[in-house]
Q: What sequence folds into this?
């Protein structure tokens, strides 16, 4: 006997989402897979998306960071999702217009995101500037935000708070004046947030996911 899926998502809806993404074309994401490549194993690729979204185990991959020149100088970073993730996002959009479905950070998603950040060993990267840290984490965090904050930003709040704690640990190792002073380090972080509110993507307002090309220290 097969167990019921926790989310009711029809395969026809996934097919409709795929058709819309294909019509919009677009560049390949971080995995290098184009629409043409996706079509080479279309049935299996679409089934994988449907199965993971229906079971609540879909986990958005990182987006491809593409620098875009700004008219005022400098750059902003545009995040390009993978073909599969664009289809998944379109499924969510279609569902939102028809039902009360919204993606949520599940109990399995949260540890997975934290584990991904642990593998970066950010607190040990004291050779990096704060701007380097922001650019290094932006693609993956932007992908998480695109999925989980599309309709309900509060779902991502625990992850955002965890990222801030990681930044504080990094700062306590990098700056002598902050070593052994956690309260002072959090006060430092608060000042940085007020001065550079768009530096880290999880500090930005919903939908404003860009990292300035600067090297705050």
A:
């Amino acid at each position: 006997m097969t167990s019921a899926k926790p989310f009711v998502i029809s395969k026809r809806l996934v097919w409709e989402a795929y058709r819309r993404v294909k019509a919009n074309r677009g560049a390949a994401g971080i995995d290098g897979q184009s629409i043409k490549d996706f079509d080479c194993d279309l049935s299996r690729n679409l089934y994988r998306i449907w199965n993971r979204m229906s079971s609540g185990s879909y986990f958005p991959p990182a987006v491809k960071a593409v620098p875009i020149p700004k008219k005022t100088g400098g750059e902003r970073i545009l995040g390009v999702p993978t073909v599969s993730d664009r289809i998944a996002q379109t499924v969510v959009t279609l569902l939102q217009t028809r039902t009360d479905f919204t993606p949520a950070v599940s109990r399995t998603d949260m540890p997975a995101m934290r584990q991904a950040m642990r593998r970066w060993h950010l607190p040990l990267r004291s050779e990096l500037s704060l701007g380097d840290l922001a650019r290094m984490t932006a693609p993956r965090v932007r992908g998480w935000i695109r999925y989980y904050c599309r309709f309900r930003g509060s779902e991502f709040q625990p992850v955002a708070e965890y990222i801030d704690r990681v930044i504080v640990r990094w700062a306590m190792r990098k700056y002598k004046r902050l070593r052994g002073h956690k309260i002072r380090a959090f006060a430092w972080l608060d000042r940085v947030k007020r001065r550079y509110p768009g530096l880290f993507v999880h500090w930005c307002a919903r939908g404003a996911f860009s990292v300035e090309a600067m090297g705050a220290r």
Summary: The first strand starts at residue 64 and ends at 69. Residues 130-148 form the longest helix (19 residues).
